[in-house]
Design brief:
The structure is a single chain. By secondary structure, the chain is mainly beta. It has a domain of about 35 residues. Helices cover about 10% and strands about 30% of the residues. The chain has 1 helix and 5 strands. The chain starts with 6 loop residues before the first strand and ends in an 8-residue tail after the last strand. Zinc ion binds next to loops.
Length: about 50
C-alpha cells in the first residue's frame, strides 16, 4: 500500500513538498503556504469566498 500524499509545488523554487508540511490552516479559514526550502510564503490562498 502506498501512502500517496498530495504534493504542492512551490511557485518560487519549484520544489515539491507534502501538502501537510507546507500548508497551515488558520482558525479563520485562511491558509498559509510556507516553503521550507526557500522560505517563500503566501497567505490567503483560498480566497474563493468574499
Ligand atoms: Zn520554495
Amino acid at each position: 500500500m502506498n501512502m500517496e500524499e498530495p504534493l504542492v509545488h512551490c511557485p518560487k523554487c519549484g520544489e515539491e513538498h507534502p501538502i501537510q508540511s507546507v500548508l497551515t490552516a488558520q482558525s479563520n479559514q485562511n491558509v498559509i503556504f510556507e516553503c521550507p526550502k526557500c522560505g517563500y510564503e503566501k497567505r490567503n490562498i483560498l480566497t474563493s469566498k468574499g
